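Dear Dr. H.,

I hope your travels went smoothly. While you were away I took the liberty of generating a structure for the chain from your last submission, since the lab meeting agenda had it listed for discussion. I wanted you to have the full record in hand beforehand rather than looking at slides cold. The sequence, exactly as received, is reproduced here:
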Amino acid sequence: MPGTVLLLAASPVGKGCLVDAASVLPVLAAVSPAVLSGSDTANVVELADPLEPQAVLTRLRAAAASPGPLTVFLTGQLQLDRRQRLPHLALARTTPATVRYTAFPWHWITEELRLRPAGTTTLLVDLHADAETWDHLAARPLTAGPSTALYGRIAPPPPRRSVAAPAYMRAAATVLRSGHRPPLAALHQQALTRATGEEARPGPPDIVLTPQAVARPWHGAYGAADATPVAAVPPPLPAVPPTAPPTGGFRPVGPPAAASAPGGAHTVTPAGPDPHETITAAVQAGRHGEAEALAGRWEQEALRTYGPASEQVLHWMEVRADLAMFAADPERSCRTWLAVADARLGAGEAPDSPAVESAVDRAHHQWGLVGDAVPARELGSALAELRRRVPGRRQGALDHVRQQLRQLQTQA
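The corresponding predicted structure, in token form, is as follows:
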């Protein structure tokens, strides 16, 4: 199956720039796509010094939707927004005062990669940070979610009035230009060794990122004990109820244990495949009803075990919202995302928390795809009410809903 490679380099223009991120792209582009991805063939997408967060989100979302292995090479610098103190990837127009609106939130990366099958996603990063952000991340390392292999480093700021080079990523590209892609851990170690020898700078050492180094509870990953990202996978759930529908898996984790059921069907037992992988396989096979039913049963189990508004229940609600999107049912997806946002707000989460904002933004997006005027008016009224509490990061979101509602009223 063809792989996908996303080459992303971003840094601010002007005196706020800490690293010449785009300088590594020609070196990476000279590497064979197959070597970059570790697959026989691959599609390579390059994004250099993007201006808008939505442009990055669009490319990342498209890459995350690819069925084969995905490798993201990310070079740039991190900054904290002043309100929530969450790490963001600084873009061309980013300044310390505009991080929240002009930079790309790190937790969006985790969110977009969360439904990919485990073992198919690699994120290789070479990041620099200003002093405040670097100190913050030294105590709260970045993560990319439980199903994504994250390798790389975060370097402290360079000396004043100087711009650093992406030595780690350039070293990784040099290794790959040999035409051989070593195992990820070996590639990471080689790149780290070369970069350390090349830079030989005074000051604190880099923050090294590996899957082992960042294996820690989600609640500390983004700088606030109550800022659990949407992408967080909840603690293990009980077994799927024995009445679960027939399922199929394209990449089980170990030999699945199955019990016979009437009609030759099988039910997943605790030793069976990860339900997320089974659901993903059903979606890719076009069995959307089966995927929705399985997610619904896990949600009910979470409800009985952990109670309403628990993170486990909310996780499965979010999965169902995404499944409705994959099934081309924007009405159901919008309705579910609105319910997620209401539940999170009702549980005491802040209106500007990443999880709440993301739920409302996704509901807004799906609402724009609802073709029937009657449910569009109903959902639009609920969305407008929610937008008053959760305006989000894009200016004019509430005005957009109101304008579209006025147009829908003329169709009544």
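Two observations you may find useful: Residues 213-272 have pLDDT under 50 and may be disordered. The CA atoms of residues 387 and 398 lie 6 Å apart.

With kind regards,
E. W.
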